[in-house]
Amino acid sequence: MRVLSGQLLGAAWLAAVLLAACSPGPGATGSGAAGPDVSPATHDAVFLDRGDCAAGDRVGAYREVVCSDPGARARVVGRLYGLLPASPSPAPPAAARAGDRCPPTTDFLLTVTAARPQGYACMRNLTAPHPGDPGGGGGPRTIAGDCVYTSRKGRVKETPCDGSGPHAPQFRVVELARGRGSCPAGTVLYVGVGGGPAGVGCARRL
Questions:
Q1: Strand, coil or helix: what is 158?
Q2: pLDDT-derived band at 57, boundaries 50, 70, 90
Q3: Are 191 and 142 in contact (CB under 8 A)?
Q4: Is the Cα dihedral 129, 9, 111, 105 positive or negative?
Q5: Confidence grade of residue 152 (pLDDT, cut at 50, 70, 90)
Q6: Which helix (H) or strand (E) holds 98?
Q7: 1 pLDDT above the threshold of 50
Q8: Distance from C-alpha of 187 to C-alpha of 174, rounded to nearest angstrom
Q9: Is 46 helix (H, G, I), strand (E, B) or coil?
């Protein structure tokens, strides 16, 4: 069987959301380039620091809240400081490259631009679903156990392995390896997995 080559450039729910920080305290307001005004609910020196929680609204904007807040949706499991520079096509966008540096089971990524320090927040939902889990169909990382389908020639995208997504899974990543030569027998698709020592996902047809 002919071996294909795929590059996973983005995740199913990779969000590049502008977050606006403002002065703490009752009635505090702020503004950002997109989305409603938001304000930190805690007094941390770092907006959306590791271990902090966030609540989202219907338009995709997020604000920091205490994790016991009924509206808290996700927890920060990784914080990356500084915005990555844009790269010319066909290189992945900055947010996708930042997602490669998140913990493996990160559910989604937030881009922090209107608060200090700028950077990226790797988020994990407080409750299910967890698209970043193996086979979950999303998250900024591609990990062993994930499934993909061919979106166009030379490109694949992640989809839930259980078939619950709009696209049926065609391949499953069975192992991450340093290079194609390290993939196990039966590999029919090589999926780019971004930075780190594991540079390729070895996938088999389902």
A1: strand
A2: confident
A3: yes
A4: positive
A5: confident
A6: helix 94-99
A7: no
A8: 9
A9: coil
The structure tokens listed for 138 are 């999303």
* 99-123 residue pLDDT tens: 999 999 999 999 998 888 899 999 9
CB 126 within 8 A of CB 68: no
Residue 15 has pLDDT above 60, yes or no: no
Two structure tokens written together for 1? 């069987």
65 vs 108: CA distance, rounded Å: 17
Strand order in the sheet with 108-112: 62-65, 53-56, 74-81, 119-125, 108-112
Domain locations along the chain: 4-11+130-205
Pairing of strands 4-7, 189-192: parallel
**Conformation bin of residue 151: beta by default, left when phi > 0, alpha when psi is -120 to 50:** alpha
119 Ramachandran zone, left/alpha/beta (phi>0; psi -120 to 50): left
